Amino acid sequence: MQVSVEKTSELSRKMTVTVPEEVVQEKVNARLKSLAREVKVDGFRLGKVPQKVVQKMYGARVKEEITGDLIQTNYIQALQDNDLRPAGMPHIEPIESEEGFTFSAVFEVYPEFTLDAVESIEVNRPVANVESSDIDAMVDKLKEQKKSWEASEQDAQQGVQVTITFSGTCEGENFTDGTVEDFQVELGSKRMIPGFEDQLIGLAVGAKKTFEVTFPEDYGNKKIAGKVAAFDVEVFKIETSTLPEIDEEFIKAYGIESGEVEAFRADVEKNMQRELAQGLKVRLKNSVMDALYDAVPVSLPAAMVDQEVESLMKPYYENAKKRNVDVNEIKPASADFEDQAKRRVALGLILAEIIQKNEIKADADKIRAVIDDMAQSYEDPEQVVNWYYGDKERLAEIEQMVLEDATVAWVLDKVKVTDEAISFSDVMEPATQK
To answer: At the topology level of CATH, where does 116-129+259-428 sit?
Structure first.
């Protein structure tokens, strides 16, 4: 086997492989000889078919099979011999040659880079506590979740719940699949598109109204994103809410058998402390990832970025399928995900390099500790532990999590870390997905 490698760009390679004709013919003859013992041909006994007859009948197919096998085995061997790490599937083409069977493989390789810049990184570590006022706010949220609704004759205003029937059209086409019945909207919740709830203010039961609202530019349905839509609405019910008292019944509903306020607040605080610890961990990890991405320059294989873009777009395809919607109506442009895909690919390469260079492992005791901690929020922790250890894929997810945590710890040990005091609410605000 002869191999030549051409560097066509920083990461692109064109590898040309030639297998001597005698090797190809030897393998073809061996396959035909084996086939001659198995095929049935009229006029010949089984196993007595002349090889020339077999060659005439099956020669082309056998040659195609052999060259396919040669591509697979020699491509892999050529990569190993030339210390090449492809970063995606190759584009392989046969080449006419008098020297034997020749094929070319065009592919990208993994980038080479250093981690020298890591030690110059500076990271802010968020520090926060659960204050009494935070517990008060959480108790208020729990009360809000348990509020009851009662029919009212007043006109719609902020804070009431309005039950409506509505339909929507955009550019003359209905996009609500006809009329939506018995739809509940809590005014002030901002769960509808901007401007929709405002149009319901002041309406009474039985009122009908037609109004226009502009969909946000980033709305999920690309067919109506950024466009003006007309809604026909009819109000069927208006309800006002009443918050529950923090009494024994309310407290017991949250699993506090004593029904005592002190025990209830202590349990709420315990859960908040757990959530805070996780929130601080996520924010610190994101800070480390941001710093690594900014500090360590990495050339990215286009094939890996394209694959990551497809992965990010997959939920849109699945959502369209579930809703029986034409995927083209909600499919975003791949360019919308390119920056996010590049970030993920770059960080994946950087973390892999850190792990390999420093031989970082996922400690078994830490894996168990993570699973035990996660299990504590369930009624039967032991069952949850067994659920994780009973499935290799689920366990692998935790192992990856622990490995990332160990890698973040390694980075924090190398960089300058400054504590930054923030509030509980700041920590618990939903972070933008990266």
So the answer is: Trigger factor, domain 2 (1.10.3120)
